């Protein structure tokens, strides 16, 4: 009888932890998708979150243009510096991709 009770309790705990993990993952995913939209938010913390999201984003010409617009628009030096770092990384990545494509083609 005791073993069955332990197994049931363990199963309930495992299911609860799994459920909380799934809910947490969904909340994080929702926050990330919101961060993309919040780059030009009036709230600095949302802009910071959007920049943090862009740190991990794949470099593209559209993102480079977006970051250039953001840097021209942003008034806070810290956020502008972070955006410039992300922009520099993306520009370097795109330049390396273009060089590799030229070498391959030529």
Quick structural overview:
By secondary structure, the chain is mainly alpha-helical. It is built from 4 helices and no strands. The radius of gyration is 22 Å and the shape is elongated.
Summarize the topology.
Layout: H1 2-37, H2 44-55, H3 61-73, H4 77-105
Helix pairs in contact: 1-2, 2-4, 3-4
SSE string: HHHH
- DSSP helical segment count: 4
Uncertain residue ranges: none
Radius of gyration: 22 Å
Helix share, percent: over 70%
Q: Mean of residue pLDDT?
A: 87
Structural class: mainly alpha
Total of domains:
1
The gross shape turns out to be elongated
Question: How big a fraction of the residues is strand?
Answer: under 5%
Largest sheet: none
Distance between the termini: 76 Å
How many β-strands, per DSSP? 0
Structural write-up:
- By secondary structure, the protein is mainly α.
- It has one domain (2-105).
- Helices cover 85% and strands 0% of the residues.
- It is built from four helices and no strands.
- Helix 3 (61-73) runs antiparallel to helix 4.
- The longest helix is centred in the first third of the chain and has 36 residues, at 2-37.
- It starts with a helix and ends with a helix.
- The mean pLDDT is 87.
């Amino acid at each position: 009888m005791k073993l069955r009770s332990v197994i049931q309790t363990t199963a309930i705990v495992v299911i609860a932890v799994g459920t909380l993990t799934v809910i947490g993952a969904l909340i994080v995913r929702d926050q990330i998708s919101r961060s993309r939209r919040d780059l030009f938010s009036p709230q600095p913390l949302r802009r910071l979150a959007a920049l943090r999201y862009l740190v991990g984003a794949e470099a593209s010409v559209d993102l480079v243009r977006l970051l250039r617009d953001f840097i021209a628009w942003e008034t806070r030096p810290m956020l502008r510096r972070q955006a410039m770092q992300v922009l520099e990384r993306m520009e370097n990545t795109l330049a390396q991709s273009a060089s590799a494509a030229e070498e391959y083609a030529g």
